[in-house]
Write a structure and sequence with these properties.
The chain has 805 residues and is α+β, with helices and mostly antiparallel strands. It is built from 35 helices and seven strands. Residues 682-782 are annotated as: Disordered.
């Protein structure tokens, strides 16, 4: 098989400045005696004929573009290009070229635009001498000028010569005078030539020319020239848009005229790059790099000038937080800060640090706390973007602010709780804003970016704060949607109460999935904080109610949460699971899935396979003793038989140990094993263990009880309910016996493990076909799940461009 790394297409530039495909072959670099040097050879893959034989000249400027393209000029008007199938092949040939020329392969151009000897020669020339003879700037010479400009673009040295000639002659301003004459005379042909000329001058990629073209005197005429693209039937009206449609808005009056001019210039040049100029081809992508740099450095200057004007920023903050500020004005102020922060990303790290510290000093976080709670969707969206910049810059700065804030404010108005509530109340059907906020929350609670010093530990302090003041807000929708109280509120009583599956519409399911993703992250990174919370709230039981959701992705999120807990191989968690009989809803889901081979089936099997492979004895014993009869018919995997084998082996091992120990020592041995748990874990199980499945936990002094969910949650959920249309969910069908297919209850008594008419059980029920010899399938368990309606769905709107609408 041929080496695909060396597979290339050969291109040559024709007289019309278009690239012609000369064929496909394989390239190699070898010494050619006739050419007396290392050369590039390309042989056609079809017949092995020679497509290209080119000596690697030490003085030729080779360019590497887009990782798979090498371009160079061999003569005045003979340009070549090799387009590689794979980057690795391009890199190999590029290294050969650089080796011959003695260059570092990390460069993208092997030669300077002008070599040293040429530079010295140019410096010795009088200023009036011509590097390229430019035609006189007259209407009848426009076609000749256009041909000259477009012909030099493929040669770096010729581009440089033309740029120097244009600088010395003051040529650009003369061309723009001709543009005004052509427009007055309605000379369409001349305007088309001027389009080619100005576009070509932009592609010369010369900063000194940009300074002239983008000056206040010239820039609108440059835009005018670019309106007359010969490919268009009618010219575009870019100047009309820039002068009449795009309005300059000052949220606070700017007194610095230089700053105002810089803002106008940057907007117009950005418009030229993004809107007017066509997307560069693969051979033109490096031609506008200086234009990009021009815009970049302009933005740096704007941010620096605004940052140094503390009076201006103080006034912006004062109006942003002033209750008397009207909504339109506040929206403009927030959008200004959003674009201001976006521009700051162009700063060097040390300057960016100073910028955000200035904002923090002026009170950006308290201001965000106010505007994020407003009803205006556009304001909240912009505030979220600003908050993301701050979190990305310094999570520690945000954490320090919220911990100080907690000493003076109620939980409901804490910044992080405001962020959580915005996530919960996102009205976007796809929860785009909620996903963004969830990512920011995960960054804030990630111990990996928390600092530890000799005086204090940020991790310990912040996590204590988060679990005491914020976790109950985050889990409120989850606990509400899996609470039996919901059925009481909906007046579901009597025999149908346990057969009710509360509606879980798609948006609610998405929200619960996001919350579960955060909680799963906490299980992996927060150790005893999340363990404490799970035990106090019996959280895993509530999460597993979602295994009955009609949305498979939500059931998988619930399963993933349990899988992460089991993956810790913590006996404390294992005992909590076995005492609460928490495998039951998982096994119900597996049995209900039947013979379908899907992601849910694989995920459940993987959970039990992990327990078998890791030989988690307490869980293995619990599964075999309680569920093996329901699982023994599953034979398409050996997981459950393997668990049974592990269980019997361990039982035999324990029996042999007991037989080898004198009876007089057995009681002491058992007494000693009963104390094996660490003292801080045994406290969770210090109540009567005779009550089957009871999850016994010690209360935590500062933990928020379930009844203490914030009133704000109920308020904003009720408000959003009034705006939302009823979701018509298909309830589960009844079986032939008149009952629902599932009967899993998650009542408080079941959570505590007491005997109840609603307690869980697995019932093997013979199908009608079993009398004919077919296998019977156990009837599964379901849960009655309640769901809270979420906010009305609306689409986000795009924000204005910097300073402009």
């Amino acid at each position: 098989m041929s080496d695909t790394r060396r597979r290339v297409k050969v291109y040559t530039l024709n007289e019309d400045r278009q690239w012609d495909d000369r064929g496909t072959g394989h390239v190699s670099s070898t010494y050619v005696e006739e050419l007396k040097g290392m050369s590039l050879l390309v042989r056609a893959e079809s017949d092995g004929s020679l497509l290209l034989e080119s000596k690697i000249n030490p003085n030729t400027a080779y360019q590497k573009q887009q990782d798979t393209l090498i371009v160079w000029s061999e003569a005045e008007n003979y340009d070549l290009a090799l387009s590689f199938q794979e980057k690795a092949g391009c890199d190999e040939i590029w290294e050969k070229i650089c080796q011959v020329q003695g260059k570092d392969p990390s460069v993208e151009v092997t030669q300077d635009l002008i070599d040293e000897s040429e530079e010295e020669r140019f410096e010795e020339m009088p200023e009036t001498s011509h590097l390229i003879d430019l035609p006189t700037c007259e209407l009848n010479k426009l076609e000749e000028i256009a041909d000259l400009v477009t012909s030099v673009l493929s040669s770096p040295i010729r581009r440089e010569k033309l740029a120097l000639a244009l600088e010395n002659e003051g040529y650009i301003k003369k061309l723009l005078q001709l543009f005004q004459a052509c427009e007055n005379l309605e000379n369409t042909e001349g305007l088309h030539h001027l389009y080619e000329i100005i576009r070509g001058i932009l592609f010369l990629n010369k900063a000194t020319l940009f300074e002239v073209m983008f000056s206040d005197e010239c820039i609108m005429d440059v835009v005018g020239c670019l309106e007359y693209d010969p490919a268009l039937a009618q010219p575009k009206r870019h100047r009309e848009f820039l002068t009449k449609t795009a309005k300059f808005k000052e949220v606070i009056p700017i007194t610095d005229s230089e700053l105002r001019q810089k803002i106008h210039q940057t907007y117009r040049v950005q418009y030229i790059q993004d809107i007017i100029l066509p997307t560069p081809s693969v051979f033109e992508e490096n031609f506008l790099s200086t234009l990009t740099s021009f815009i970049f450095f302009n933005k740096v200057e704007i941010v620096s000038m605004l940052q140094e004007d503390e009076k201006f920023l103080s006034e912006v903050f004062a109006q942003l937080t002033d209750e008397a500020t009207d909504d339109d004005k506040r929206r403009e102020l927030v959008n200004f800060f959003k674009e201001f922060c976006a521009f700051s990303q162009t700063l060097q790290p040390q300057n960016r640090d100073a910028f955000f510290k200035t904002l923090a000093k002026l009170g950006i976080l308290p201001a965000l706390e106010i505007v994020m709670g407003m009803d205006d969707l556009q304001v909240r969206s912009a505030a979220t973007d600003i908050f993301s910049y701050l979190v990305e810059f310094s999570p520690s700065m945000v954490r320090e602010f919220v911990m100080q804030e907690a000493q003076q404010s109620d939980d409901d108005i804490l910044l992080i709780n405001v962020v959580i509530e915005q996530m919960i109340c996102d009205t976007d059907p796809e929860l785009g804003g909620a996903v963004q906020l969830m990512g920011l929350l995960r960054t804030l609670i990630d111990p990996e970016n928390m600092l530890a010093t000799t005086n204090k530990t940020e991790k310990s302090e912040f996590l204590n704060f988060f679990y005491n003041h914020c976790m109950h807000v985050l889990t409120a929708p989850l606990l509400t949607n899996t609470s039996e109280d919901k059925c009481e509120k909906d007046n579901i009583v009597g025999p149908n109460r346990n057969n009710t599956i509360c509606p879980d519409n798609y948006q609610t399911a998405q929200l619960l999935a996001l919350i579960l993703e955060l909680l799963t992250f906490c299980v992996e990174h927060h150790t005893y904080h999340i363990k404490n919370y799970i035990m106090n709230k019996d959280l895993l039981r509530r999460v597993l109610v979602l295994m009955n959701s009609k949305h498979t992705f939500l059931a998988l999120c619930a399963l993933r949460f349990m899988r992460r807990i089991i993956g810790l191989k913590d006996e404390f968690y294992n005992r909590y699971i076995t005492k609460g009989n928490l495998f039951e809803p998982v096994i119900n889901a597996l049995l209900d899935n039947g013979t379908r081979y899907n992601l849910l089936n694989s995920a459940v099997i993987e959970l039990f396979e992990f327990i078998r492979v890791e030989d988690i004895k307490s869980l293995t014993a619990h599964i075999v003793e309680n569920f093996y009869k329901a699982l023994e018919s599953i034979e398409y995997v050996q997981t459950f038989k393997g668990l049974k084998t592990k269980y019997e082996q361990e039982k035999d091992r324990q029996s042999q140990k007991l037989n080898s120990v004198p009876s007089i020592l057995r009681s002491n041995r058992f007494r000693r094993d009963a104390k094996a748990l660490e003292e801080d874990e045994e406290m969770w199980f210090n109540e009567d263990e005779e009550e089957e499945g009871k999850a016994v936990v010690a209360p935590v002094e500062k933990s928020k009880p379930e009844d203490d969910f914030p009133d704000s949650y109920e308020k904003f959920m009720e408000t959003k309910k009034a705006k939302e249309s009823e979701d018509k969910e298909n309830l589960p069908k009844r079986t032939s016996s008149g009952g629902f297919k599932f009967t899993f209850s998650h009542s408080t008594s079941a959570a505590n493990g007491t005997n109840s008419t609603n307690s869980k059980s697995v019932v093997a029920q013979t199908s009608p076909a079993s009398s004919n010899g077919s296998s019977s399938k156990p009837t599964n368990l379901t849960s009655s799940v309640t769901a809270t309606k979420v906010c009305e769905t609306v689409q986000y709107t795009k924000l204005c461009f910097f300073f402009f609408l």
